[in-house]
Design goal:
Chain lengths: 62, 145
């Protein structure tokens, strides 16, 4: 699944480690999400959407 | 290290990095001590059993079981602390290792019956599982990079 996580994170000047800290997951998880090789669970997708103040479908694309 | 990994590491504070490294080292040390205790206990249990000192042998067998249970509990604790992605990697690695260990033991069993291969010591299932698990874990986590 494609996503705009890297762009959104970059806009805020956050590192992967910082985003991981804010969402309560590991840096490896953020890395896997950004590479599009791992699709998040719904709770994590909602958490990311809330953090970036976007809708889930604005962040993730099928 | 990939650019992604380097980028991710940049902003992590030194204290947080040190804390994570210490926790990882402590966990690895705990696991190594228990694995070594298990192997030594098996070795001494076998040795005392050969010398006809069954009470000592039974004591070392009990120590081996306790060490193995300790390893298992440490792993469960670690597994429960993982996030969803890490659990997915672990679960896949466990499935591959479990299947691999069963396949190895079954194949050896067939070789024992048909080809009169030497008896396979069942306690070796744990180390064999661990070796396959480590390789599988590395392969699975690499696939997500």
């Amino acid at each position: 699944m494609n996503n705009h996580l890297r762009t959104l994170r970059g806009e805020r000047g956050w590192s992967q480690a910082r985003l991981a800290e804010l969402t309560g997951v590991s840096r490896q998880t953020i890395q896997a999400l950004e590479s599009g090789k791992y699709d998040p669970s719904l709770p994590l997708a909602f958490k990311l959407a809330a953090l970036f103040k976007r809708r889930i479908e604005d962040i993730f694309e099928p | 290290m990939t650019d992604d990994e380097r980028e991710g590491m940049e902003d992590e504070s030194g204290a947080s990095k040190r804390a994570r490294r210490t926790a990882r080292l402590r966990r690895s040390a705990e696991e190594a001590v228990m694995a070594l205790t298990f192997l030594l206990a098996v070795f001494f249990a076998d040795d005392f059993s050969d010398r006809g000192r069954s009470a000592f042998a039974a004591g070392f067998v009990a120590a081996a079981v306790v060490a193995l249970a300790g390893l298992f509990l440490t792993y469960i604790r670690r597994y429960l602390a993982l996030d969803e992605f890490e659990r997915q990697v672990e679960t896949k690695a466990l499935a591959i290792a479990g299947g691999g260990a069963v396949m190895f033991a079954a194949s050896w069993g067939v070789a024992e019956i048909i080809l009169s291969a030497p008896d396979f010591p069942l306690y070796m299932i744990a180390p064999i599982f661990s070796i396959i698990y480590m390789a599988a874990r590395h392969a699975v986590s690499s696939a997500f990079r």
